Fold each of these.
Amino acid sequence: MERTTHLITAKSIQELPCIDYLRNIPRQKRIKIIFGHSIGHLREDYGEELKKNLPHFQIGIHSMEPKIEINKLITKEEIIANQLFFVQCAKDYRKLGEELVNLFFEKKKIKLNKNFPFLAFNYLKGRRTQGGKVGKWKYFLHGYHCYFQNIITKQEIEVPFMFGMEFGDLDPYFFSLYIKSTPKYQPLPVTIYEDFADGKRILDVMLQLGLLEQINSNLETHSGLVIKERDKIEIKIYNPDEDYEKIKFKSKLSRFIQFFNF
């Protein structure tokens, strides 16, 4: 569902919308304020005031053009009302992530280091195997994730690989994309308009409700968020002096076969 845009052209301070009006706009409506020449210099100050008074809104202050865009984010009440749905999404995300990693290593004929799967993924980055296909899924390795898209359903998921065999770490943007692209969730019980901002709001509220918890990753300075109700998996801190190992293939031919296994 797309937002509708309500345009407000303000030629004077008196024509700028008040906080109470903006606070009560429906989420499906985007407010775009165009500042007249005589009050254009107030745009940034007015925008900062909106950010201070509307913490759960997305306030876009254009750096060059005389305009501000205002979007209401998903509310805490909406998230609480749909918490069972979001919990199930988080559990499904984790389960699918594990299935895809196992499929990936099986098809690529690479031995899986269950303590540090990222060693193999990092090895494959920067090579022709950085992107390709496994089963019915296209994939692409980047950063701390492996992106998968189902060729048939177009479902998308970004699987984290910096948490040992824990694949349920939730990123706001990636979680939103997963939910919106998963056929069995459609139609969604609540609309996600802003992939990152709404996703972050969902995860923040779920954390407040005790539905998520923070976990450490394989890197000492990196952490993540996962569903609290799960089978706990030990995540070891990577020590390059002790834990580094070269990628291992399941057979002598696997090193060559994997490059053609798309």
Amino acid sequence: HQHLHTSIILTLLNFLGKTFSDEDENIIWGILEEAAKDEYLPVIQALFAAQRGISRRSRFSKGKSGSQLSKLKSSSEETFERFVKKIQFKVLDHPTSLEARLWAWSNIDYKHCDMKKLYEKAQEECAHFDKEGNTLWEQAFEKMILIYKEEKTCSFDIIIDIIKKIMSRREDIDLNENGNGNDNRHDLPVYHRIQRILTILASHIKTFDEKKKVEFQSITPVILQFDKTLAYNLTIILIRIAESKEDLEDILQNLE
């Protein structure tokens, strides 16, 4: 039954935007919206074009999905954009499956969705410290890094604002931990997440162009104001930005 459902979704993708009546079109959109809430992962995967990290069992259907969505994109940019906004984006809020939501964060076609809404949702996920947030935040953050890297007009502010949003949770999360007698910074959720973010950023530095790299320097006062014990993690980023001995000396001097 579930395999049949996946096949139906793949077939419907082929007819999207090609029906002879509004009624038929609405029926297709309705089925796709329901599919975005399906608990069977291959059905969710069928709504996205990417094919990495999939099981052997679903590889064939995913290949077909990628093909159908590529055809849809080339035949009607408007319909494809509607599909991303209405269907793919919906999976980010899947009611029961964190696996489905992770898949959506990894594979959503961000260039055709509402960037403001996507960014707000990423910021929201990154600042959550419940089971959902702990599972999803890193993938959401990676998506924002990808957008920052690929979009020339995208400012580093999208990263800074996420970091500040996470930091704003310190009082009601980390300080509560301290109130319970926990003085180890590395056991504090907000501190640990900021530290992890610095590690992630450091791992991506080499993939950015020079202009984007320079913007990373704006993170310095934000991190040091939050917690000076993160200076070591920050230094790793700044050293990787440095292009010369003089740059390195300036960086180290600013950290003193």
Amino acid sequence: MEREMQEVINYIEKQRKLYEAHDFFVQLLTDESLSGERRLAWAPSVIPFIMGYSDLNKYVFRKGEGDAQLEHLQVLLNAHTYEEDFHWQWLLNDLDKLGADSRMSLSDATRVLWGADFKHSRRLCLELASLASDSPTYAVFAMVEAIEAVSITIFKHCRGITMQDGRECEFFGTKHYAAEASHSIKSPEVAESSLPGLSAIKREEAKLIVDRVFSLFADWSTSLLRFATENDVHALTYERMVRQSKDMQPDAGTVG
């Protein structure tokens, strides 16, 4: 007997609540004894993921536009990808508020963005792309729903965090949370009655995808917490990353 995909959606909410107990939230985001700058000290390290996620929406999740026979879940996914198109601009606006928008050459910026300190965000994009590339639409839909659950959990706890000058961030704040909460993929139109029935095998496949997504984001969140703990002066962090990159030497076995 087939059941609605709502069972998978309910499973995502269960996993979201478990994710919300991660130390990233407990020790950092929800700790009001810390300054806003400290609670968001991890922000620069997510740049590769946020920019990469924009590309995931354009080139991986969005498919078959203009196809009149496109299945309903893919139509919903396509609409969602456009809603995510410009959130990254809020992130760039926030870098100045966070004291993280240092001036540097393009070569040094490349050393920072592709440095070891940011590898968790680059790798996450690649893992998600790989996961989606071999998955049917219903599994990708579950995957995107799980990513959305992660996002809204993070931004829920970013609401109200202000910098020492009293300003709140756009990406890491109420503005982004409100945008995430209003996405069409969460709207009444995407109700239980509009979601397809899935066989038991397909439901379990979708749940495995969901488990993998939350596992990836749990590892990512551990890296964000570590980055925030170890780096609080962004300019000094960038200087160290550039210096370490320039000091790198090729492996002896690869020379000549």
